[in-house]
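Record format v2
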Amino acid sequence: MKRSCLLIMTISLPLLLCGQVMALHSGPYIGMAIGGNALMNARSSDDLGDFGLTFNPALQGSAVLGWDFEPGNPVGEGRVELEYTRRSNRLDHVKFVEGSFNGSGKVVADSLLFNCFGVFHNDSRWAPYAGLGVGAVRIEASELKVNGQPMGNGTDVVFAYQFGGGIDFAISDHLNLDLGYRFFSSIRPAFSEANGRKFEMEYINHSALLGLRVGF
Amino acid sequence: MINLLWSGFIFLVLLSGCGWNGTPTRNNDFIPVTSIEISAISSTIAANTSTRLSVKGNFSGQFTRDITDQVVWSSDAPTVAGFVIGAVPSRVTGIAPGSATLTATTGGVSATYTLTVSSATLSKLTISPADPFIAKGLGTQFTVSGDFSDSTTQDMTFDATWASSASGVATVSNDAVNKCFLQTLAVGTSTITATFAINGVSDSTLLTVTAPSIRSIELSPTNPSVLTLNTRSFKATGTYSDGSTADITSRVTWNSSNTVTATIAGNGTATTLAQGTTAISATLDGVSQTTNLKTTGGNLTAITLTAAGTTPVGSNITLASGTNIRMTATGLFNNGSTRDISGVVLWSTANPNLATVTLPAGNMIFLNAKAATPATTVTVKSGSGSVTATATLTVTATTLLSIAISPVNLNMTAGTTDRVKVSGSFDDGTTQDLTASDGTMLASSNTSFASVGNSSTELANKGRVGGITTGLATINANYGNLSAPVPASVNVTAPTVVNLAISPATPTVATGNMIQFTATATFSNGTSQIVTEDTVWTIDNPNIAILADSLNQPGQVVGVDGGTATLTASFLGLTPSPSVTIIVTP
């Protein structure tokens, strides 16, 4: 998991080091994106101690509704948007004092974030961007099991945030291709264990996505 | 620039977001236990004795774990064997000869164990350890083994009653949880006895509690940075087995791992020789502690000698017989820094009958001319002797014609000081500063208003005039039968200090170099005065910067290592004391 994290970081960071351009579009837009995400090893805690959850990478999908600021806007060049994303990752294994055990079940995160991205325009069709978003996420732990034995279930809605960057490619005045990276995290959601205890789980996610935005 | 800031920020976020790789502290209790197994040291115990049972759980064949504390116990024959010790539920006691089936249950899973209770009787107890020596403050677990009439042996630690003959020396617990845990309290001896109450069989052993043994050593300062050619004293504090602490600086064995960088004496004083790092360790009775000593400021490559008021570097010095002059040795280091090293080099003269060197304190050095001679040499060398410098001194047999004191008017504020200088004119037409010479005598006409330093043992203060309180005084100077024709008039006033300013306000100095600070006081009458010598200077972090010589060079600071330190100036109780941040570049 650490290797995939570092790979995403390595791929994404150079995208933030590009130069300035002009905006091709201003006004409202809608868009969709698909990509892959890696949910990091999660420290989970209850009153008996800490244990680790490891998840499989998975696909994710997003839909956005936003507004491109016109070039020279006093607010800055960029865009604001409302983003809905679904991430679903299967539990791979669980680590206790006694060792590592097979896991099953999944953790599904439905997030709704308000994003602000600054776009760095230059003379080409390529425009790098970076920004952040805040909002809420509904995280569901669904039928989590360890070696086939019930471990936990539950749903929690918590504050969430993300940092992201990427590069836009202007296909036309109203059509943009978006290759991006997102670091997404939340405060720790709480779920119920099979034995009735409550446990809290870290949620840290890295994702790479390919999106298409249509401006009006 | 904005792009780079964004990149750096996000990179930091990502670094913190690579997931958890820690060590779990929680047991897996999601997988059910499917079987359990009971074990004991012996399946047979004598009546009126006990043994502890252990239970190991098998969790669906995935792993096993000791779950002794999680089971519920029962006996099918409680008149033979029962769980009667509430504080230790897993300890079973033989009540009467016979056999009993013991059952442990957890999570719907059970296991049984057959325990036989014999009619054997205890014949002998043997305590272990025998006649032990234990340092004061330490605790230890004693055990006692029992020999029975059927030739079996059994651990009787729990079933015996323990006692200490001198409870002030050591106590021994009869508590069910800490049975026979012995705690030493004072130096001395105590007889520890274990008795089996049923038949009175007992054993005893003589415990000797020795002086506290050292458990750990703490060194101070920790990881200091020190300029080359300096000394730093380390202190070792020992913590003993009884919890006490003591200064053991002189008892430990000191060692430097890199004696090229620094050596350390038996009293804990390290002498820094060359730039680098060395591990300073202190060891006592097999216990040791180490801290790193970083030596900074470059390696000495040359020394320049300077006589006060004369041209430096290899110049000839001429002094009248019976007079003296202040000398300074300035070191040039291979990192480009220069600093006053007068107080850390070795001074000597070729012929002590002709000239001597006085080292009052710190960086103050005086060269004394004893007898007229065509020429003699003054030599200084570094501690290792690898770098030297020499000056030539000619002592003349001239006759002093007159002396004069300057300045002749001093306007001072009470609580501050200033200086007067005594100059002598000789028959060969030369003049010389005689202020610090032995023959010069200074006196105040009214010591209630103003004082003047005149001690030959405190040369740093000779000629220093102190304002005591509002009033007028004169400072007179004599040398032999000569007197200064015009004394110095001192007018002392007593306004209140309202402000103190430090300059420079934004100082930067390179490691190994010196920087001079000046303190200027503003008084309630609108006047201002430089009070650098009267100010108490302090620095909060000696690993970054130090005062060069608080006695002789007030306000002068030397950079020790890269970083920032705060220099604070205190003057006549003014609060708050002003301070500046010194930036020391590596």
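Confidence is low (pLDDT under 50) at residues 1-5 of chain B.
The helical segments of chain B are 2-15.
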